[in-house]
Design brief:
0% strand, 9 helices
Length: 171
């Protein structure tokens, strides 16, 4: 029986090539880089060591490119001791929630813009938001159109959006 590396790989399930280890370290560094931009309250919910939290906070102060690269490597090294899969899932959930929020926000903006552009949109809007006060809605629309015609800041348009958002949240 020969004693080559192929034989070792075949019998040792835990064996990882140098390339595989390097890929895993780079993945941890990328995950750590995503954590740098997160808010402290979100980071507090994750199973992170105090040393890693301190390193993430420190990275915000580092400006020089090479120092930042080395610090990311250090964060990647610290990431070896945490449950990377759990952190990845938490980040993915947060980003999915953010995307859903942005899409919902755009939907409300479209309602505002359609209502300002066309009075015929009031009926479908009232169908979707039956608690809306038609008279108040029309007044907000008149004011928003008047401001737009006079090239004034869109204060009434903002009030209209706030009214639509409140209806959506309470409805």
């Amino acid at each position: 029986m020969s004693n080559s590396f192929d034989d070792i790989e075949q019998f040792d399930d835990d064996y990882k090539s140098k390339t595989q280890l390097k890929r895993e370290m780079e993945a941890l560094q990328k995950l750590g880089a995503r954590l740098i931009d997160q808010k402290p309250d979100f980071l507090a919910k994750l199973p992170l060591s105090d040393k890693l939290l301190a390193a993430l906070e420190e990275s915000k102060r580092i400006k020089q490119r090479e120092a930042k690269r080395r610090h990311l490597q250090f964060i990647g090294k610290l990431m070896r001791d945490v449950d990377a899969e759990q952190i990845q899932q938490a980040l993915d959930r947060q980003e999915a929630g953010t995307q859903a929020y942005v899409q919902h926000f755009h939907k409300l903006e479209r309602w505002r813009d359609q209502l300002i552009d066309d009075d015929a949109q009031i009926t479908p809007f009232m169908a979707e938001y039956p608690d809306a006060d038609r008279q108040h809605l029309r007044q907000l629309l008149r004011n928003a159109r008047k401001e737009a015609a006079q090239n004034k800041p869109p204060a009434s348009s903002r009030k209209l959006f706030k009214y639509i958002r409140d209806l959506d949240e309470n409805g």
